[in-house]
From TrEMBL, chain A:
<dbReference type="Pfam" id="PF14697">
    <property type="entry name" value="Fer4_21"/>
</dbReference>
<protein>
    <submittedName>
        <fullName>4Fe-4S ferredoxin</fullName>
    </submittedName>
</protein>
<dbReference type="GO" id="GO:0016491">
    <property type="term" value="F:oxidoreductase activity"/>
</dbReference>
<feature type="domain" description="4Fe-4S ferredoxin-type">
    <location>
        <begin position="3"/>
        <end position="31"/>
    </location>
</feature>
<dbReference type="InterPro" id="IPR017896">
    <property type="entry name" value="4Fe4S_Fe-S-bd"/>
</dbReference>
<feature type="domain" description="4Fe-4S ferredoxin-type">
    <location>
        <begin position="32"/>
        <end position="60"/>
    </location>
</feature>
<dbReference type="InterPro" id="IPR017900">
    <property type="entry name" value="4Fe4S_Fe_S_CS"/>
</dbReference>
UniProtKB/TrEMBL annotation, chain B:
<dbReference type="InterPro" id="IPR054715">
    <property type="entry name" value="GGR_cat"/>
</dbReference>
<feature type="binding site">
    <location>
        <position position="42"/>
    </location>
    <ligand>
        <name>FAD</name>
    </ligand>
</feature>
<dbReference type="Pfam" id="PF01494">
    <property type="entry name" value="FAD_binding_3"/>
</dbReference>
<feature type="binding site">
    <location>
        <position position="274"/>
    </location>
    <ligand>
        <name>FAD</name>
    </ligand>
</feature>
<comment type="similarity">
    <text>Belongs to the geranylgeranyl reductase family. DGGGPL reductase subfamily.</text>
</comment>
<feature type="binding site">
    <location>
        <position position="287"/>
    </location>
    <ligand>
        <name>FAD</name>
    </ligand>
</feature>
<dbReference type="GO" id="GO:0046467">
    <property type="term" value="P:membrane lipid biosynthetic process"/>
</dbReference>
<dbReference type="GO" id="GO:0046474">
    <property type="term" value="P:glycerophospholipid biosynthetic process"/>
</dbReference>
<feature type="domain" description="FAD-binding">
    <location>
        <begin position="2"/>
        <end position="165"/>
    </location>
</feature>
Length: 60, 389
């Protein structure tokens, strides 16, 4: 089990705030599609900055 | 082989590409999205003076003109900063969807290549040049260039990959949510700002008129102190202030409130606009500085290419230009922001009361600080200690 950020695509407004604060380059915005890659360590900073509350950290 | 590759077709990138192309350079402007200007991530306000410095005004992308601003403290004490009369507009609320396309078109007209749906991936150094790896409509594509300008916004990859800037901390970024609302009954001659530690922790709420009863109604909060997400605070603001309107669009975004970066360059690379954290730490405004930075980066790029010197040492001329133009203001306003962050609601109220009803005939931060000091002389010493380096 590891911690990882997950995105609720129905809430995400694809602004890239999460991309800006991730120093692992784990989040990437492709048009309207937010990708979270294997670099994610579940630190949760993206959850704090997401204006929409679209991100959370879960055990995966 | 390009002289300059510009990443990001927002105001900074398009202005840089236009400036380079006008000086005869071979320029490529890439935008990762398929449409320039959308989705909007902006409250769209800009001062008339700042805009006129770099762009010829075209009504096609002006939504509304305002004569001033009204600021509300937590107990709703009103402070008005305005020109004497209507017809003497000081600010614009833009239609960024059209404005950004207009700027990209100006760059194209000047001779820049423009490509959409083209994403910057990485770069490597080849001699004194760069090989830039891009993804163009899903296909890998490499180009060589002498200079790379990163105007790729708050989430800049160029700047962080080049090691020019550090990733923003949650105390260095405003998390923002905004609705475009219709059916509003507001005086469309003003922009409106609402302060309060509960209302908008570390930020403010705004209403910027867009004409015909429409307005951008938004909020920015500082994630390091906010207890919930920006949309939560926005909905609470609308409820509390009984803003009766229909939501016709949702905008979300993030604004750097970093202050002045030490440098926005390295060998072969310059950053401009939000990518260089050029947005204002007090107002969050970024368009004016982005236009200025893009222009200066374009000028320095063309000089560097003429001299065949793409070293950081030469490109630091760009640092000198943007710092002299507005960098000093970012540095000062970062300190002012830190000062304002410490004020509780009661202090904000008493400061607002001290200058309420005064005729502040200028809509700048300087004007309001000057008025505050006039009415609260003890502030001067406190501010001095904050502003001293």
């Amino acid at each position: 089990m590891a911690k990882k950020a997950i995105v609720d695509r129905r809430k995400c407004a694809y602004c890239g705030a999460c991309v800006a604060v991730c120093n692992l380059f784990a989040t990437e915005l492709v048009e309207t599609f937010l990708e979270i890659n294997e670099n994610c360590n579940g630190c949760g900073i993206c959850v704090k900055v997401c204006p929409m509350g679209a991100l959370s950290v879960a055990e995966v | 082989m390009f002289d300059v590759v510009v990443v990001g077709a927002g105001p900074a990138g398009s202005m840089a590409a236009k400036t380079c192309a006008e000086r005869g350079l071979n320029v490529l402007l890439v935008e990762k999205r398929q449409e320039i200007g959308t989705p909007v991530r902006c409250a769209e306000g800009i001062s008339k003076k700042a805009l006129q410095r770099f762009v010829e005004i075209d009504k096609k992308w002006i939504s509304a003109e305002v004569i001033g601003a009204k600021i509300y403290s937590p107990d709703r004490t009103e402070v008005t900063m305005a020109e004497e009369m209507a017809g003497n507009e000081v600010g614009f609320v833009l239609e960024r969807k059209i404005f950004d396309r207009h700027l990209a078109r100006l760059a194209a007209k000047a001779g820049a290549e423009v490509l959409v749906k083209t994403t910057f991936l990485s770069f490597e150094r080849v001699g004194d040049r760069l090989r830039v790896k891009l993804k163009r409509m899903g296909e890998d594509w490499e180009v060589e260039t002498k200079i790379l300008i990163g105007a790729d916004g708050v989430e800049s990859r160029v700047g962080r990959m080049a090691g020019i800037i550090k990733t923003l901390k949650k105390s260095e970024i405003e998390s923002c949510a905004q609705y475009l609302m219709s059916n509003l009954e507001i005086d469309e001659n003003y922009t409106y700002f609402y302060l309060g530690n509960d209302l908008a922790p570390g930020g403010y709420a705004w209403i910027f008129p867009k004409g015909n009863g429409c307005a951008n109604v938004g909020i920015g909060v500082l994630p390091s102190i906010a207890k919930a997400n920006a949309k939560f605070y926005l909905d609470k603001f609308i409820e509390k202030f009984e803003i009766k309107g229909k939501i016709v669009e949702l905008v979300s975004g993030a604004v750097p409130v970093y202050g002045e970066v030490a440098t926005a360059v390295t060998d072969n690379i310059m950053l401009a606009g939000d990518a260089a954290y050029h947005s204002d730490p007090i107002t969050g405004g970024g368009i004016a500085n982005a236009l200025s930075a893009g222009y200066h980066a374009g000028i320095v790029a063309s000089e560097a290419i003429e001299r065949e010197d793409f070293s950081a040492n030469y490109l630091r001329r760009y640092d000198e230009l943007w710092k002299a133009d507005f960098g000093w203001k970012l540095r000062r306003n970062k300190k002012l922001q830190e000062f304002f962050l410490k004020l509780d609601d009661e202090t904000l109220n008493s400061l607002a009361r001290s200058i309420a009803g005064k005729n502040i005939r200028d809509t700048s931060i300087e004007a309001i600080i000057a008025e505050l000091i006039k009415k609260n002389p003890s502030l001067l010493e406190i501010l001095r200690s904050f502003l001293s380096p």
